[in-house]
Amino acid sequence: MEKSREDARTETGHTREDSRTRDDSGVLDEALERLHAAGPERQGWLTNHGPMAVEALVHGDRAATVHRWLDRYRDKLEDMPPPARPIDPAAWREALGDPARLGDWPAYFARELDARPWRDVLAEWWPRLLPGLAGAATHTVIRAGHAVRTLQDTEAAGHAPAGPRVTELAHALGYWAARYARLPSAPVPTGTADPDAALAAVPAVPAQAGGIRERLAQLTPESTPGWPAAVSALAPARTPEEAREALAGLVRAAVHRYAAYGHGEPVMLVHAATAPNAVLRALPALPRDLWVPSYAAAWAASAAVTAAYGPAAPLPQDRIPAPPAGDAATAADELLTRAAAHGDEHTIKFVDTALDVGDDTARVAALQSVALIDPAF
After folding, report:
1. What is the pLDDT at residue 23?
2. Residue 346, exposed/middle/buried by CB under 10 A (0-12, 13-18, 19+)?
3. In which region does residue 207 sit, left (phi positive, over 0), alpha (psi from -120 to 50) or beta (all else)?
4. How is the chain split among helix, strand and coil, in percent rounded to 5?
5. Taking the complete model, does pTM exceed 0.85, yes or no?
6. What is the residue-wise DSSP string for 297-350?
7. What is the pLDDT of residue 44?
8. Which of 162, 165, 158 is nearest to 58 (CA)?
9. What is the percent of the chain where pLDDT is above 70?
10. Which segments in the chain show pLDDT lower than 70?
11. Could you give the 3-state DSSP secondary structure of residue 181?
């Protein structure tokens, strides 16, 4: 019999699928070492998804597919930008959000993480970076969430985090700092709506064209009049425990919504779920007084992506797949196999997040991502 969600709940508020394991093979370290010669972006602004995708594959017990996947992906990568000048610890704000410092920020965090425990560095920088969570279409925090999960898994296995896994956190935080970007308007939750109702009420930006920066720039009371009220309508969290549960509910709602609304922009709408899930994954490594503001920031980012790309109407029911057959563990194994074979990095990451939610609707949404996003292989 399938476990109830409460019986299977982990400390992050997620369910855990039995097929998901920890990596002791060394494949993740090898893959990260291959990736760390590359920069966080290519062609000036496209995100390097390699570290996130390989971490998700390994976490999903698909380590055997990682190097094959990376062999195909590496032609997309560009070298790490050369350092311009070192980040001044006394004047770091001046370099925040400056993409010309894409080579400087990872080097700065590498020095910090060499000198101090990773949790201390994360606790210091998380509140500094959190307001800029929307930078690089939220890929910055998503990469950080994957890096933090790896470090937590390493400690849970009884090992001291070191080497490529700590370096990956340096690269992730460095990317976040260089691409730090605030939303033009990000009201905090003050209402009574649950996440499903709140996401359904988010208004679309009036000009759904162009890149995400052009779309997010419209999230002002003047350009999108319903935006502040819709974002404020979500129920707030007042304690760390409430924040964790509310954030898990937001991830669940965003994953569920993808099943019927992901067709609006199948790749970009993935981030409405994966961004808040990255925050949720990081919570156990953060001081508890950061959990409530983390929930508010994650909600604003998820709502922003929904506003930027959400379609006006859901798909008809006959275009929404049935849940995969079998019990939860069997279905999860099938979805992970399909994601690895599909090969697109967004599908891999979304299936990974959907299996964190772990219910039938989430598994339907995972199937939908496989169907809607063009395969890489």
Report:
1. 54
2. buried
3. beta
4. 60, 5, 35
5. yes
6. HHHHHHHHHHHHH--SSPPPGGGSPPPPSS-HHHHHHHHHHHHHHH--HHHHHH
7. 82
8. 165
9. 94
10. 1-24
11. strand
| pLDDT computed for residue 220 by the predictor | 97
| Secondary structure of residue 41 in the 3-state scheme | strand
Spatial separation of the C-alpha atoms in residues 193 and 200, rounded to whole Å = 10
CA–CA separation, 85 and 134 (whole Å): 25
Q: What angle do CA 156, 169, 33 make, to 5 degrees?
A: 95
Centroid of chain to Cα 305: 12
Answer for the pair 8, 356: CB distance below 8 angstroms, yes or no.
Answer: no
Q: How far apart are CA 113 and CA 107, in angstroms?
A: 10
Dihedral sign computed on CA atoms, order 285, 353, 301, 174: positive
Say how far apart CA 183 and CA 217 lie, in whole Å. 7
CA angle, 306 then 226 then 198, to 5°? 50
Structure tokens at 100: 């010309």
Residue 181 and residue 138: Cα distance in Å, rounded?
9
54 residue type, one letter: V
Rounded distance between C-alpha atoms, residue 85 and residue 187, angstroms: 36
Tokens of 356: 């964190």
Cβ-based neighbour number of residue 44 at 10 Å:
7
Q: Which two tokens stand for residue 20?
A: 């998901």
**Strands 41-42 and 46-47: what pairing?**
antiparallel
How distant is the alpha carbon of residue 21 from its chain centre?
A: 20
In order, the DSSP letters of 338-362 are HHHHH--HHHHHHHHHHHHH-SHHH
Distances (CA, A) of 161 to 10, 117, 147, 168, 285: 21, 9, 11, 11, 13
Q: Give the model's pLDDT for residue 162.
A: 86
Task: Give pLDDT tens digits for 46-92.
Answer: 999 999 999 999 999 999 999 999 999 999 999 999 999 999 999 99
Within 10 angstroms of residue 377's Cβ, the number of other Cβ atoms is 10
